[in-house]
């Protein structure tokens, strides 16, 4: 579950004097180069340096950008008090950033602070896997269980071709946008600013989803292929929705700009206001070097499809080159983590799942707490550290903040914002902020009834959070139902919706809100126990009938 937190806007210039930078990194380097004594690194100076390093407008970030996207010399950030800055407050911004646990990136930057920790971690994992494989050989006469491998790679050609067709079919969005919204022959009745345009977009997205979910249901794949295809279908739908929604908004701005240009010169008193509005719209249509609608090409969409981002922008911060050594290390890391993941699932999880109807649900949950937590961490590293960073390097995508320090989360809402940044940004851009603005706009409207009283009493942020929870829960439930081909009475949906009262409780209970260590401990205990519990609930009802086993495709 992902709760948006809109905190990616431009930095404010009204920082506390205690935290205002006393010496920037550039000034320190210049002082050391001139032979001056090194500064005393007081706590305030360390905070200043951290702020200088995290500043999205800093020189180090500008050097990572592609030359066409670097900010011209002399261009300053807008003060936080100006109307332009107020208008951009709360928006999502992409800027050059690295993943905080990307060991390969740290090595490229010449930092080896965590080299020993990484070496120790993988050495311990390797020694444990060797012991596990030897024990399996002594018991079964083979080192590696091959049943799961035969299940994963069964009908692999059919899965690969279907997945390729799925990705290629998303290209319909390019002619959809060009013909209906920005083309020369677009229908006049289909103005992108009219609500019927949004309904037409929703119909196209739902039709696309129905086609591919129906296709998956007719293929007769085992559960492993269905899970992969369902997740990839959901990811591609997010890309389709973000592309269509963003371009519809830009098409609205383009038509408004054209109408303002036609009105310009009719009244001298309004000319200054019209020119200001046109400049704002031009800045929206051309944020860097690319300009809408010239960017609406198949090449631009193909780049968005390959980028590890679910929120579409006309142009992203780019790096200047591809480091093929970095790509090779991420590829090797993906293969290695997948092997470890396979061994843990085949040797430590499936045997317990197959015996669950004999030993019971609670005991199986206890047995799976360690392996499930290990698989969860491996899934995190293979998805966000290896695959996402690898595709980011191939596409020169400079913003690699795919996660934050979710291990320090003090609650489920904190975890949702930090665990999966691409999905978090999608929910924030397309669910949370639209609902918040809609609720805020209709809060003071006249009317009666229960819904109107709810609008006046409920803050817009709470309403937006509830809507985001509801949408994410529906998306998770639909994906699981399609993958399992069974409905388990909405268990996943209700388990996610129950997080809302827990979040409200932690926010209002002052005694618990101040206990940061206790909140982190409670978060970890909940994650370690309830994840295998949910897995056992779905497995008991869908994956492990008493007459079959997990790795038998006919048993699912």
What are the salient characteristics of this protein?
single chain; 556 residues; mainly alpha; 66% helix
Note down, in words, how this protein is organized.
The protein has 556 residues and is mainly alpha-helical. 66% of the residues lie in helices and 0% in strands. The chain is built from 24 helices and no strands. α11 (223-263) packs across α20. The protein starts with 24 loop residues before the first helix and ends in a 13-residue tail after the last helix. Mean pLDDT is 77; it is low at 1-22 and 49-91.
Summarize the structure.
The protein is mainly alpha-helical and 556 residues long. It has helices spanning 25-33, 43-54, 59-64, 83-88, 103-108, 115-140, 147-152, 156-169, 173-182, 195-217, 223-263, 268-285, 298-306, 324-354, 356-359, 361-394, 412-419, 421-442, 450-457, 460-484, 491-497, 499-508, 510-513, 516-543. The protein has 24 helices and no strands.
Low-confidence stretches: 1-22, 49-91
Order of helices and strands: HHHHHHHHHHHHHHHHHHHHHHHH
**N- to C-terminal distance:** 26 Å
Percentage of residues assigned to helices = 55-70%
Tell how many strands the DSSP assignment holds.
Answer: 0
Rg result: 26 Å
Morphology: globular
* Main sheet summary: none
Helix/strand/pairing category: mainly alpha
Q: What's the tally of helices? A: 24
pLDDT average, as an integer? 77
Strand content: under 5%
In terms of quaternary structure, the protein is: single chain
């Amino acid at each position: 579950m992902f709760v948006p937190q809109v905190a990616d806007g431009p930095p404010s210039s009204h920082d506390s004097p205690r935290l205002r930078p006393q010496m920037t990194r550039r000034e320190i380097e210049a002082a050391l180069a001139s032979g001056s004594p090194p500064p005393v690194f007081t706590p305030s100076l360390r905070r200043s340096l951290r702020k200088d390093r995290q500043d999205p407008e800093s020189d180090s970030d500008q050097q990572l950008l592609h030359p066409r996207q670097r900010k011209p010399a002399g261009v300053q950030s807008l003060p936080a008090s100006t109307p332009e800055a107020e208008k951009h407050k709360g928006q999502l911004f992409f800027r050059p950033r690295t993943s905080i646990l990307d060991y390969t990136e740290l090595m490229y930057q010449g930092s080896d602070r965590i080299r020993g920790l990484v070496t120790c971690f993988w050495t311990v994992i390797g020694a444990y896997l060797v012991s596990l494989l030897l024990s399996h050989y002594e018991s079964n006469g083979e080192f590696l269980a091959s049943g799961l491998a035969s299940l994963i790679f069964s009908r692999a050609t059919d899965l690969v071709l279907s997945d390729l067709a799925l990705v290629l079919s998303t290209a319909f969005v390019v002619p959809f946008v060009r013909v209906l919204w920005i083309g020369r022959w677009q229908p006049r009745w289909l103005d992108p600013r009219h609500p019927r345009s949004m309904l037409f977009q929703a119909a196209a997205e739902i039709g696309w989803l129905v086609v591919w979910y129906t296709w998956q249901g007719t293929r007769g794949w085992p559960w492993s292929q269905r899970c992969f295809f369902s997740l990839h279908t959901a990811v591609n739908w997010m890309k389709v929705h973000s592309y269509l929604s963003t371009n519809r908004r830009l098409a609205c701005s383009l038509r408004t700009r054209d109408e303002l240009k036609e009105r310009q010169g009719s009244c001298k008193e309004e000319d200054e206001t019209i020119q200001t509005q046109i400049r704002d719209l031009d800045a929206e249509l051309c944020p860097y070097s690319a300009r809408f609608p010239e960017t609406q090409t198949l090449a631009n969409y193909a780049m968005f499809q390959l980028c590890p981002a679910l929120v579409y922008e006309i142009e992203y911060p780019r790096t200047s080159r591809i480091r093929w050594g970095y790509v090779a290390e991420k590829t090797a890391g993906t293969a290695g983590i997948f092997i470890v993941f396979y061994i843990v699932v085949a040797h430590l999880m499936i045997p317990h799942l197959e015996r669950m109807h004999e030993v019971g649900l609670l005991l199986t949950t206890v047995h799976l707490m360690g392996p499930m937590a290990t698989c969860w961490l491996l899934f995190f590293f293979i998805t966000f550290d290896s695959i996402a960073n690898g595709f980011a390097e191939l596409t020169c995508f400079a913003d690699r903040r795919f996660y934050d320090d979710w291990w320090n989360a003090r609650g489920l809402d904190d975890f949702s914002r930090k665990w999966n940044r691409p999905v978090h940004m999608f929910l924030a851009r397309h669910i949370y902020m639209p609902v918040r603005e809609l609720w805020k706009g209709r809060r003071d409207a006249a009317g009666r009834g229960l819904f109107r009283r709810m609008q006046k009493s409920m803050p817009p942020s709470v309403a937006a959070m509830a809507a985001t929870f509801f949408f994410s829960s529906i998306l998770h439930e639909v994906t699981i139902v399609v993958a399992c081909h069974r409905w388990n009475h909405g268990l996943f949906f209700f388990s996610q919706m129950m997080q809302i009262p827990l979040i409200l409780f932690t926010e209002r209970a002052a005694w618990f809100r101040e206990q940061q260590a206790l909140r982190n401990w409670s978060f970890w205990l909940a994650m370690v126990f309830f994840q295998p519990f949910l897995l056992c609930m779905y497995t008991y009802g869908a994956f492990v009938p008493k007459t079959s086993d997990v790795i038998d495709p006919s048993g699912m």
